[in-house]
Amino acid sequence: MSTTIPGIGSLIPQPAISSLEILAEPVAAAVSTLVASRPEFGDQILAVSIDPQVADTEAMTEAFGMDLALSSNCILVSGKRQGVERVAACVVRATTRADVNHVIKKRLEVRKASFWPTERAVEASGMEYGGITPIGIPSNWRLFIDSRCTRGWSCIGSGLRGSKLFVTGEVLSALPGAEIVDGLAQ
């Protein structure tokens, strides 16, 4: 692999399209679809197996000597309007915090927005806690991506705790329904 990812530490990812077995099922299906429609993404969606014990951002950063600024987290947030739940997957750099009470609430057009409980997030996404990713989310969810994640590479979940994806900002921007939001995180 000739791709250089600044701040990756000791990890050596390979093209995800040739490692689909280490991804959660909805993620593998979405990666296949993305690469089929945009072949150039084959070199911009990379995967690597990791020990599930170090899947959390801080632990992974320490274990592999990775730059924390390379990681991006996907959080699930919801709110109700007129009795209808509105759900958003929100992607923010690990060095920031999603602005749930202002920006996300306003974009969802709800009075109150909250993080989803772990059990609900896992069940609805088909992904493991600690591995939830914007790639392969249900099509009826909104997808908000902080504009800082559209530049350079991001280390994101793979749907499983035992692997991670490395994707370019171009890939994140091209995800179905992606809404790029300035100031999504503080």
User: What is the arithmetic mean of pLDDT?
Assistant: 95
Q: In one word, what is the shape?
A: globular
Taken in chain order, the helices and strands follow as: EHEHEEHEHEEEHE
Distance between the termini: 34 Å
Corresponding CATH superfamily: YbaK/aminoacyl-tRNA synthetase-associated domain
Please explain how this structure is put together.
- The model has no long low-confidence stretch (mean pLDDT 95).
- The protein has 186 residues and is an alpha+beta fold.
- The strands form two sheets. The chain has a five-stranded mixed sheet. It has a four-stranded antiparallel sheet with strand order 1-2-8-7.
- The chain has helices at residues 25-37, 57-64, 100-108, 118-125, 169-174; strands at 14-15, 45-49, 72-81, 84-93, 114-115, 142-146, 153-157, 163-168, 178-181.
- 24% of the residues lie in helices and 26% in strands.
- It is globular, with a radius of gyration of 15 Å.
- The chain is built from five helices and nine strands, in the order E-H-E-H-E-E-H-E-H-E-E-E-H-E.
- It has a single domain (14-177), classed as YbaK protein, CATH 3.90.960.10.
